[in-house]
Amino acid sequence: MIPRYSRPEMVSIWSPESKFRIWYEIEAHACDAMAALGVIPKENAEAVWKAKDVEFDVARIDEIEAVTKHDVIAFLTHLAEHVGSEEARFVHQGMTSSDVLDTALNVQLTRAADILIADLEGLLAALKRRAMEHKDTIRVGRSHGIHAEPTTMGLTFARFYAEMDRNLRRMRTAREEIATGAISGAVGTFANIDPRVEAHVCEKLGLIPEPISTQVIPRDRHAAFFATLGVIASSIENVAIEVRHMQRTEVLEGAEFFSLGQKGSSAMPHKKNPVLTENLTGLARLVRGMVVPAMENVALWHERDISHSSVERMIGPDATITLDFALARLTGVIDKMLIFTENMRSNMDTFPGLVMSQRVLLALTQAGVSREDAYAMVQRNALKVWEDRVDFREQLLADEAVVAALGKEGIEAQFDEAYHTKHVDTIFARVFGD
Amino acid sequence: MIPRYSRPEMVSIWSPESKFRIWYEIEAHACDAMAALGVIPKENAEAVWKAKDVEFDVARIDEIEAVTKHDVIAFLTHLAEHVGSEEARFVHQGMTSSDVLDTALNVQLTRAADILIADLEGLLAALKRRAMEHKDTIRVGRSHGIHAEPTTMGLTFARFYAEMDRNLRRMRTAREEIATGAISGAVGTFANIDPRVEAHVCEKLGLIPEPISTQVIPRDRHAAFFATLGVIASSIENVAIEVRHMQRTEVLEGAEFFSLGQKGSSAMPHKKNPVLTENLTGLARLVRGMVVPAMENVALWHERDISHSSVERMIGPDATITLDFALARLTGVIDKMLIFTENMRSNMDTFPGLVMSQRVLLALTQAGVSREDAYAMVQRNALKVWEDRVDFREQLLADEAVVAALGKEGIEAQFDEAYHTKHVDTIFARVFGD
Amino acid sequence: MIPRYSRPEMVSIWSPESKFRIWYEIEAHACDAMAALGVIPKENAEAVWKAKDVEFDVARIDEIEAVTKHDVIAFLTHLAEHVGSEEARFVHQGMTSSDVLDTALNVQLTRAADILIADLEGLLAALKRRAMEHKDTIRVGRSHGIHAEPTTMGLTFARFYAEMDRNLRRMRTAREEIATGAISGAVGTFANIDPRVEAHVCEKLGLIPEPISTQVIPRDRHAAFFATLGVIASSIENVAIEVRHMQRTEVLEGAEFFSLGQKGSSAMPHKKNPVLTENLTGLARLVRGMVVPAMENVALWHERDISHSSVERMIGPDATITLDFALARLTGVIDKMLIFTENMRSNMDTFPGLVMSQRVLLALTQAGVSREDAYAMVQRNALKVWEDRVDFREQLLADEAVVAALGKEGIEAQFDEAYHTKHVDTIFARVFGD
Amino acid sequence: MIPRYSRPEMVSIWSPESKFRIWYEIEAHACDAMAALGVIPKENAEAVWKAKDVEFDVARIDEIEAVTKHDVIAFLTHLAEHVGSEEARFVHQGMTSSDVLDTALNVQLTRAADILIADLEGLLAALKRRAMEHKDTIRVGRSHGIHAEPTTMGLTFARFYAEMDRNLRRMRTAREEIATGAISGAVGTFANIDPRVEAHVCEKLGLIPEPISTQVIPRDRHAAFFATLGVIASSIENVAIEVRHMQRTEVLEGAEFFSLGQKGSSAMPHKKNPVLTENLTGLARLVRGMVVPAMENVALWHERDISHSSVERMIGPDATITLDFALARLTGVIDKMLIFTENMRSNMDTFPGLVMSQRVLLALTQAGVSREDAYAMVQRNALKVWEDRVDFREQLLADEAVVAALGKEGIEAQFDEAYHTKHVDTIFARVFGD
Description:
mainly alpha; Fumarase C, Chain B, domain 1; Fumarase C, Chain A, domain 2; Ribonucleotide Reductase Protein R1, domain 1; two-stranded parallel ribbon; L-Aspartase-like (chains A, B, C, D); (S)-2-(5-amino-1-(5-phospho-D-ribosyl)imidazole-4-carboxamido) succinate lyase (fumarate-forming) activity (chains A, B, C, D); lyase (chains A, B, C, D); purine biosynthesis (chains A, B, C, D); N6-(1,2-dicarboxyethyl)AMP AMP-lyase (fumarate-forming) activity (chains A, B, C, D)
């Protein structure tokens, strides 16, 4: 976890305080359930709630763990210091450490998912607003970095919206998948604990009981969760790369907002660098790098080995904190992004008129010219534009074969931009609904 | 694609013949739609169907591509050789190569998904059958590779069933996500083609029109698809590792079926090696290795660059063919797997009675012994079993403090195995339904 | 292996014919050594060489393997068909399959390394030639995609040269690391075979005996090998990205060579797309994706498990074939790349004079202006150039404070380009030697 | 960075204090060099050393960065607070932020490499000691988890030694590769700074000047560095997996040292779990997951983009800290590991005598039996041992065909263990030298 790439709300989910709080709730609710089943005395269950408002002392727990070398036992020992060791003696009865650890981890991941879902919703709102704003802002579409045909800036925002909307659905699925708990004992047989304890604890924590667990909750759930984060991070990179391209000196169709106090470079004061989106590109690499380790965690030995734990101690916080930060940063970038519509227009004329070549090609074929001949006609004129930056329309008007096929008016008609934007409303309706 | 790790049905999806067949259908259906809209003459659309039963000549298309260096143009040229170049002149009109390539790729991925779904269903059937068969077959559950408490072999199969059932759901989601097509032109604006052409083609091919495409279908869909394959591969490894552990000489609780003609090793004829599941472990690594490249494909430049293409030419076939093979191989392993119930029983007695120690611990606390004292009582007797392989029950019966706390009958009661299996039915109901 | 991304020489290393040829040589040389040690009769060793010029029948070996399910036994059976089963009966004596398989794999990887080394040498030659050619070709250097200060195209080629030269050294190290063989028996103890057999076979095949092997050669060697390929692939991407940027419409400082028959796009005939370097970008992702599976292969169980095998059957050929193809393709791109020096010059004037701002800043500080003031002076003039594309030099000449600090001549002096290229010779000497 | 998986010395390399200290030294040495060249006044260079013993105030620098949004400027501003802003005004002259940042990063990585090299040396010492100690400790070698032939525990330690020794060499190469610095200005042309400044600073910091840099040091160096860490991590996993297998209940040939205060599990007090090596398995996944992000960092745009920075801020510390911790932990495990020689012996007799079957096979062929017949003879007897756990030797002695071929004494001779260990000295000499 890198402080500069972190936001407090997500960080707090992963604090020791939060973790111990969740552990406490699991144990306390489990005691309630056991008391209701008559397995432990009601007063002992009630006694546990004495610690309800306690902020657990992380340093003290660490101190105990240094001796016991076992985190859950250290916590339980500390809990007994608050509740009284006599009263606390039924706490955790019939449970195994992983019942607490795994259920708590999934509570944390579920809460993290809630923040990420809210992040995505915020990003979607920003993307939608900018899409509407620039629905009709003409710019050139590019394939291979090369000018192709006109499109609009609104369509660019709209496709990022659609992509992030898919990510929102994926994130919701991932949240649903990870929202399970297990209180099933040492090998998952409920030998020493009634399944109704699990049901009660899960219900209180907003989880579904894991249908079948071993000592642990199966890690394919976590793998799917982190894989989803990896996909979302890759989409963030997708948007970031677009912004970085737009901001490069020769293109300059857009730019990250540049606050006045900010210095772009110690040496070149005029430089407005797309540092936020470059940063997002790097953050995407980080989150992606956590996907395979999460997948390697799936194949645990028999009813569990603990190899997954160190991986999750790192990627649990790191992936969610980094992605939360990245989504928030991207939302800010989109929200305040500068759009240079004049440059969009002048860029389209880098090779004047050439972006209309496909349309001319089509018009020629439709006018009865063979595909090969039409291709040749367009190509010979296009190459002149390419080499001498002359105007494509004028070249065509001076090309007898083209004029013979299309007529002068027919040629002129191919350069009407509205032709390219006529379906923008249709596409927006498909993306945003009517 | 490695022939020895391939099955013909999946391989055939990725053959050039299949690809050209799909291309053909896209073009032909697009002509129909354009004819219906009055954009091209009906007879030209009809003419295209003359090639309906043609097997396209891959070598001839390759030959043309060697000149044009463009695969779709090569195909269209060859198609014109069948349909007649005059009749074929409206084919592909207003479309861009990616309209064909991307829609075709998604048809292939969708068909691959259908096979993988069927594979998973087959695997689930095998797992369910074996789970039912061994529902009550007692074996020791292990955490950290160390004996913990009794469980049953049926529970092992049942948890793999539950995991693969989640994978089936993930695969269905992935199929749904990838089943889109796009016929939207050079930058996705439908400038030269009516959106109704896309709608018609997609409907005929069983796809949903991509709500907003550029020149290409957005690659987050493909990233999510391959990530799902990576999760499934990791689950395959999970099952494979269990089998490998069961088969190791000292454990020998199960084994891959061993056909008579098979030689285990050129040097050690008696060896029955778990080579199939070791192979599956390796195949899982391969499929996982394709996830990050698929994610790196998401951030294409502007309306597209073609960097994704080489990645997909390799991982499209390789990931689906490998996973199909792996699922089929695993199904065979599960189906015919040998289960050595006697060894399960003798393994449980490696340290006689020690697997009951947690239960004894619990009984002691319930009898009013403090957690720390109970722990100590169990530990001192357990260590003797550990060191001298004496019987745990007998140790306890000879330990005055334990007898004082539980009574002799109370001690005996802790060694009843039924205690550990009493919730197996409950768990089975949760996994398989009632 | 994708035929279109493959070259025959590298492909042939991985053919079954090549593999069986290497197996044959291992067995035959091993027989010689055993005969020399008096372990087997000399005539039997000599008899094996009867098959010296045989092209082994792959189909026949596959047929035998279908029965025996063991590839080495299948090969030995077939070999006996050539040599005579009586004469062949000492072949492979005391050896284990992996002695053959692993030694053969390393022969293949060593040969693949030789090709890759030659590829890198070819690429270095092309880079050096282009570097010399464009040593003094001025273009703007960019950080963050934003104009920074002048540099030369020769420096760009030179840094790719230096990077690829490091890769050459890495590749040589990787080759050295992988050039080991092992003939050490079932668990590496030489129980049934004299270490001198290993020494003889390795010497004949150009390998070093693995100092300590188990049944297999340790896989950290292979992991380091494939990791090296991943680094090289990433460097290829680095060069490819530069070319792609240079070719984008607004930049157009360079382009992949465009042959006349080639069609850039079915729809936009004028488009000269950087498809080769986009392809290289994708190929880099593929090779990188094979690094982690190779690393996961390191941790085999005890003296070996066979999980590495399926991984290597795929990535052995795929990584080397793909990288060989990519290096050759990149060499072609560099060799024939078009450089548009005029566009380099006009791009530098996108914001006239602004690339000199750092130098002006420095001149101001050196003239006694405080860092903060100098920054402010440069910034206010730079922003005007940024906004109105006016000439930076003229702005400065009209700024009284700047004139007061530097004098008019002092300002003019900052716009001398030679200032930026004065150390190019020094750098070239560091890269290419004197 | 996870505190529980960190060691202070490595952590301190990555502290802000260390970083600012290195930045300071770079700037101060650069001033010296510039003064020596007459570029800045000597007294200003000397003045910078006034801060020689200052502990920079991280909080204050962060405060300034919050305004300037630029870390190097913030540092320089703070430095001026110590040195005096008049005196400090030539600090950083002609340099660009990356000159400082990149050179400092490589200083950190070089120092981290030194620790890792020392770690590996410590691990090698432990492995060597245990190898010598157990040179002749017989245990069964296993392939596929199945008993193969006898080997010794010393050979196991020796092969880990050889593997880690290769890793030591790789780490030294990686250190050498990363030990470069660059003070070459905004685009690497030395326009505003003399190359002799770079030479001086590098010499003082123990670095080699980067032959050709842009704004940054090329990232293929870092990719190779982190790839090396990934290989080492995979070797750690290799050793860890061996220990985990040895410790599993049914095998129990070794165990991690178990301190008395440690509680193995909250529920099963007798359990001695291999938690350290399971932990190492997870840590290996983490380090491996950082390799591909480091490789993705290679392809920066033009003379640099800053996408690499966030990646390195995380993986720089995380990979080195994690690997340092893992190496130290593994050294402790090896150093104190319990070896259960009696269990090694009893495990070898799981299927009495069967581990000698390859040798019998060989003896039969050498006695003139055809390969196929010998195979059949061994197989039929081996299967009985497999099924009924009878003694292999006795089976053979009762098999007329075998007795006919080998004689009774000949059969007995095959069961001499010394046969398998006769080359241990040879192998040790190859690994450890004479």
